[in-house]
Amino acid sequence: MYPNLFGINDFSYVVMIFLGVIAASVIFFIYLSKNGVEKKSFLDLSIVIIVTVIVGIIFAILVENVYEAIKASVNNVAPKWTWAMTFYGGLVFGIPAFILMYRYYYLRNNPPIFKKILVIAPGSVAIGHAFGRIGCFLSGCCYGITTHTHLDVNFPGIGEHLPTQLIEMAFLFILGGILVFLAFKHVTNYTAIIYLFAYSIFRFIIEFFRGDERGQLAGLSPSQYWCIILFLLAGLLIYFYQKKVFKKDEI
Description:
By secondary structure, the chain is mostly helical. It has seven helices and two strands.
């Protein structure tokens, strides 16, 4: 669509990723500030977030290239390196990076705030991800199938396709808004579980409407297998939250 923002090739996607990180961070820090976290600890927490984002981006690219290698192998062609990213690669490897940085860096000089992070992080991630999907739309990637209806959008060089990027963007903004509201209003501490259930179900369904070739196994895309894993993980988290994290009156 408009991939070359300011005349720089594929810069639109980079800008949207940056805006997503900024938006997610602002929400994150406002919540912590309003819930008793001292601002003097924000520098250490910012370092944790920066490292997490860097690790997430690296693995989002690496996992996407694994997908590309598998697809190339199936089609009997030589794989080509891509700087495209997959959200699940960033999420799956970014979370352990955050936990390790929090445990071995942040806690050295600051009191524990992990429960507060668990409450606000899902909404922040959803909002940040929504900006990323705008970047996908501007870049013309991650498009949907052709429906031959007024819903299709003309992607230059590709043709008319369903703008699944914008559909997912809308869902993520709505989901993120709900999760942020629940966190700020102290309605529930189980925002991570709501996020995992909601996003895994939505993403599993929207994948059937994707039109870009990413390879399949037994009729399902790689992302749909991640959806199944996250859905099951959400179920396990309910038990973990009740037994290890939050008390019964902290639902």
